[in-house]
Design brief:
Blueprint lengths: L8 E3 L2 E3 L7 H6 L5 E4 L18 H18 L3 H16 L9 H15 L6 E5 L13 H13 L4 E7 L3 E6 L7 H13 L5 E5 L8 H8 L8 E7 L4 E6 L14 E5 L6 H11 L4 E4 L7 E9 L4 E12 L16 E2 L5 H16 L3 H18 L6 H5 L3 E3 L2 E6 L2 E6 L5 E7 L2 E4 L2 E10 L5 E8 L4 E5 L4
Parallel strand pairs: 1-3, 6-7, 7-10, 10-11, 11-14
Antiparallel strand pairs: 1-2, 3-12, 4-13, 5-6, 8-9, 8-13, 12-13, 15-16, 16-17, 17-18, 18-19, 19-20, 20-21, 21-22
Helix pairs in contact: 2-3, 3-4, 9-10
Length: 470
């Protein structure tokens, strides 16, 4: 197999040529076409080979040389880098990889060995299909670029849900920090502007595995009154520290007075962890949920081109840390203020937000509006179950309203309108289907028999009807 005859390493906007590393014999075999540090997932044609790719001793040595050269130069922690390089070269020299004659299996073993020496959630290796030389310098096939752009648009750049929850609490779920471009920033701005009138803000990162730091800075710009130092990054290959600040301008009104709650899980990783870490350290948010994944290094990808395949190396090159304490979250995760199972985090944060607002609210009627929302959350956190006999007691006609039992569930119908299911929330109180503004409460006489149904509304209004029959 003929190997390509030149080498290039690119990191961000910095470019420098480099030769192969390792023993002279391996150097003679390893002259790479291209090695370029990119944002993982954003490079050209990141697809595995369509067929298994055979491997011989020369290619195994060339791949180890390539991988070790980047780790030795770029990997953020110098001592673990030395240990990984030494370990992989020693395994190769003693024949530990001699039986591996297929690229994908070999890369999987290299990754496993490197992780055994020093675990890092951002480190990884995979085989890629060869790239058309026409697109080597451009970095991406135009068809791939357009397809990726369409997929980004279709997923709304990771912004999945934006809504106002009961009690006027804003809720934002987004599952990635999108690679920044005009449309991604526009989607983020639209989401934040929708939430501008909320009483408090819940940001759901339970399904967010990370993404671009620029989106962190943009979103943080809405949450601070002035430009704020969020975090610092040490980059070993350049021996420098980079400071990251929130955006000094964002389109639309800021959300600087609202309490903020961030929901986390064990899947919350990378950029999502940085956002959580930043807001926690700056005391701008209450973190609710599970401890995050602990992926605290910034990562790039080195792509090594051979004739019949390419190798993608995900390599951490920067370490994030709090500039006040020099502490980060790599291998530790961000620990929540309110540790609860991730699937309960939304209700817990919602209840906490409403309880805080109720305690601070002086207007009694508005406190009633907030209590309305809290009552809904408490009914989900402590669900009420009634027996069929207990449900039967509510069955009857109440003026134009009819309550009936079907398949073990109460239903409500007013006049000829469609029937709606009822869910018990508490003593004689029921939620009506998905109507967040309306509930039914039943009143009893001195003997405990139900005599009246009352329609309750979130604005304080009510209407009622006496029971007129079964």
């Amino acid at each position: 197999m003929k190997l390509a005859t030149r080498s290039l390493v690119r990191m961000g906007n910095r470019r420098f040529s480099r030769g192969p590393t390792g023993p002279p014999a391996a150097a003679a075999l390893l002259l790479l076409l291209m090695a370029c540090l990119v944002t993982p997932g954003a490079g050209a044609q990141l697809r595995p080979p369509s067929e298994p790719v055979p491997l011989d001793a020369a290619l195994r040595a060339a791949i180890v040389d390539s991988v070790c050269g980047v780790i030795d130069t770029v990997y953020v922690l110098a001592e673990p880098a030395e240990q990984i390089v030494s370990g992989l070269r020693e395994h190769l020299a003693r024949g530990a990889y001699d039986e591996l004659d297929e690229v994908a299996a070999f890369l999987q073993r290299l990754e496993s060995d490197a992780q055994t020496i020093h675990h890092d959630g951002h480190f990884g290796l995979r085989a890629l299909a060869p790239v058309d030389p026409e697109y080597v310098e451009a970095g991406e096939d135009p068809a791939d670029a357009e397809r990726r752009a369409r997929m980004d648009r279709a997923s709304n750049y990771g912004f999945k849900r934006v809504e106002i929850l009961p009690g006027g609490i804003g809720y934002l779920r987004f599952d990635s920090f999108a690679v920044p471009d005009r449309d991604a920033f526009a989607a983020a701005a639209a989401a934040m502007n929708f939430l501008a009138n909320s009483e408090a803000l819940i940001i759901d990162l339970r399904y967010n595995g990370g993404g671009a730091a620029a989106m962190i800075r943009f979103l943080a710009g809405y949450l601070f009154e002035e430009q704020t130092h969020l975090i610092s990054w040490y980059q070993r290959d350049e021996g420098r520290t980079v400071q990251s600040y929130s955006a000094d301008y964002v389109p639309g009104p800021p959300l600087i007075t609202q309490p903020v709650y961030v929901l986390t899980s064990g899947r919350t990783a990378s950029a999502a962890e940085e956002f959580t870490f930043d807001l926690r350290n700056l005391e701008r948010a209450t973190i609710v949920g599970d401890t995050t994944a602990g992926a605290g290094h910034t990562v790039s990808g080195a792509i090594f081109d051979f004739d019949d395949f390419r190798v993608l190396l995900r390599v951490p090159y920067g370490r994030a840390f709090n500039p006040e304490t020099n502490e980060g979250w790599e291998g530790i995760g961000v620990i929540p203020h309110l540790p609860v199972p991730a699937d309960e985090a939304l209700d817990v944060a919602h209840a906490q937000a409403l309880e805080t607002l109720i305690a601070e609210e002086e207007d009694e009627e508005y406190r009633g509006f907030l209590r309305w929302g809290l009552q809904e959350i408490e009914s989900r956190l402590r669900p009420v179950t009634l027996s069929s006999e207990a449900l039967q007691a509510y069955v009857g006609r109440y003026g134009p309203r009819r309550i009936y039992l079907e398949d073990g569930e109460l239903h409500y119908q007013r006049g000829d309108r469609p029937p709606l299911s009822l869910r018990p929330m508490g003593p004689d109180l029921f939620a009506v289907a998905d109507l967040t503004f309306f509930r039914l409460m039943f009143e009893r006489d001195a003997q405990g028999a139900i005599r009246k149904v009352v329609g309750l509304y979130d604005n304080g209004q009510r209407d009622e009807h006496l029971r007129v029959g079964d």
